[in-house]
Design a protein that fits this description.
Strand content: 15-25%
CATH architecture of one domain: 2-Layer Sandwich
Structural class: alpha+beta
Shape: globular
Number of strands: 12
Radius of gyration: 23 Å
Oligomer: single chain
Helix content: 40-55%
Strand order of the largest sheet: 3-2-4-5-6-7
Distance between the termini: 44 Å
């Protein structure tokens, strides 16, 4: 079943430029920080694969340091993390580990030296859209996604230790869902990971930590994790597009209405301190800001490739005599294009955006949806319902394929965003759930095989132009379907094809800046400010 919250798809609200390489990296560092047994005095970040190749242009290095400092993904101070670390007396180094095919494309090992001589190493993977997983602790293989409350315990490998730990959990009325123990050698250091059904309090951690032969016990907090296995009501659960349509039919709800009802039933506070409705209103608020700021107040991007393009498109798109919109895109698509490009410009200056579903594709959904809403006079309630719809489509693709460019190419990012936007537009304009998924299918079909080749390793070019293309794809897909032109291939099969194509793409075409446009002589010789291609 789809277990993720809508706000893992339309989110995180974050500082750009990349959800996987910036927000995801920061979240891995937050997890590592939470596992440190004492205050951290020095940390070495060892980056692999896509992280190693593109960390400067993506702000990965700044984000990792920000996470160790405890900053949130949407804290504008992320861009100043190096300075803040120096002020706090935190030493750090960045090491490029290069390519390692045995590791996830977005992998970082965080080696922390703590006060009192303690040390710990945490390896994490950024899975796309800001979601992360811990894959090893002190070199011992683990698999922690944080979908359930998780406790990490370091202890000696001696008889009776595990029994004492489980007894204390039982006494505290905490039910163990899974338990995995790893050891370095017989009688040496060992690590046990408990996934439990109940919330973990500080008192419980103190009790576990006081157990004989236990070094320390810590809760593993994984930001952005689903937090619940499935909705309380099984009638709101779905694992595929066909199941989503069946659920909508059974309850006589639109996709957006069903996704909102599902969110309300999720166990845990999925919207943070906000209710689901208030959290979605916050998403809409940030989207309105991100789509307009760069048009009215353009700024130069980190890498110097962006700054003012959105304003140029908006200024040249008049519908009067001589206006480009009249001859080419039309007023609504021109507006949508400018909105999408503005979002990427804001992201590339490390401004605050909504990853939808990623930062590299963040302009497509708000660009298409807000421009269409302006043209039709849609009220906020209808726009939010369409955003719930987009979240459902994005959650299906995230679950059954991927939204990470490092795993599936740009088809996984802009292609997914186009599918989300196409489906949302159909709902906004009164289409049926089946028509929504038909439009999403067409959008994926029209972006299938799109490679991820960021020039200079920066989320700037061709990313901004592909977001512009994404809104055109979404809008044309929506219009085709609402005009009676559907997709002959079912949505679920289209998503499966997307996953297969992504897996077939070579690593050079999956966000490593080693192929495609990023490998052209001009790109390698003239990228300002980055140095990732040197």
């Amino acid at each position: 079943m789809v277990t993720m919250s809508a706000f893992e798809v339309l989110g995180p609200i974050m500082v750009g430029p990349s959800s996987s390489h910036t927000a995801g990296a920061l979240r891995i560092a937050l997890v590592a920080r939470s596992l440190a047994p004492a205050p951290i005095i020095h940390v070495d970040f060892v980056l692999y694969n896509s992280f190693s190749r593109t960390h400067v242009g993506h702000g990965t290095d700044r984000a990792l340091v920000a996470g160790i400092l405890g900053l949130a993904p949407d804290d504008i101070r992320v861009r100043r993390s190096f300075e803040l670390a120096r002020d706090a007396g935190l030493g750090f180094s960045i090491t490029e580990g290069g390519r390692n095919e045995s590791l996830h494309p977005n992998t970082v090992e965080i080696r922390m030296a703590c006060e009192g001589g303690a040390s710990i190493s945490v390896t994490g993977e950024s899975l796309g859209g800001g979601r992360v997983r811990v894959s090893s602790i002190n070199g011992v293989r683990v698999d922690i996604a944080g979908d359930m409350p998780t406790i990490f315990v370091e202890h000696r490998d001696l008889p009776g230790v595990l029994a004492a730990l489980t007894r204390k959990l039982s006494t505290a009325n905490v039910n163990i869902a899974t338990m995995s123990t790893f050891r370095e050698e017989r009688g040496g250091r060992a690590y046990t990971v408990f996934e439990v059904d109940e919330p973990v309090g500080s008192r419980l951690l103190e009790l576990l930590g006081a157990t004989e032969h236990v070094e320390f016990a810590s809760q593993v907090n994984v930001p952005g994790a689903a937090g619940a296995a499935e909705p309380v009501e099984s009638g709101l659960s779905f694992a595929s597009g066909s199941q989503l349509l069946a659920a909508c039919g059974a309850r006589q709800l639109s996709i957006g209405e069903l996704m909102r009802a599902r969110e309300a039933e999720l166990a845990g506070d999925v919207g943070g301190s906000l209710s689901p409705d208030a959290a979605m209103a916050r998403v809409l608020e940030v989207m309105r800001s991100e789509t307009t700021e760069a048009i009215t107040r353009p700024k130069a991007s980190l890498g110097g490739l962006l700054g003012g393009q959105a304003a140029s498109v908006a200024a040249g798109g008049g519908t009067g005599e001589g206006g480009l919109a009249r001859a080419l895109l039309g007023s609504t698509l021109t507006r949508a294009t400018a909105f999408a490009m503005a979002t990427l410009e804001r992201s590339a200056t490390m401004g605050v955006i909504v990853a939808a579903p990623t930062a590299g594709s963040a302009g497509v959904v708000p660009g298409a949806l807000l421009a269409c809403a302006e043209a039709t006079g849609a009220e906020d309630a209808a726009i939010r319902r369409a955003l719930w719809n987009a979240a459902a489509v994005g959650a299906l693709i995230s679950t059954n394929a991927t939204v990470a460019g490092a795993e599936g190419g740009c088809q996984a990012e802009v292609g997914t965003a186009s599918a989300m936007a196409a489906s949302a537009l159909v709902e906004l304009l009164g289409g049926t759930p089946a028509q929504c998924l038909d439009a999403a299918s067409l959008a994926i079909a029209n972006t299938l095989g799109l490679v991820c080749d960021p020039v200079g390793g920066m989320v700037e070019f061709p990313c901004q132009a592909r977001n512009a293309m994404g809104v055109a794809c979404a809008m044309s897909s929506a219009q085709l379907v609402l005009s009676g032109v559907g997709c002959p291939i079912p949505f679920d099969e289209v998503v499966d094809a997307m996953a297969a194509v992504g897996a077939a793409l070579p690593a050079t075409l999956r966000e490593t800046a080693e192929g495609g446009l990023a490998a052209t002589p001009t790109a390698r010789g003239g990228c300002p400010g980055c140095g990732a291609c040197a």
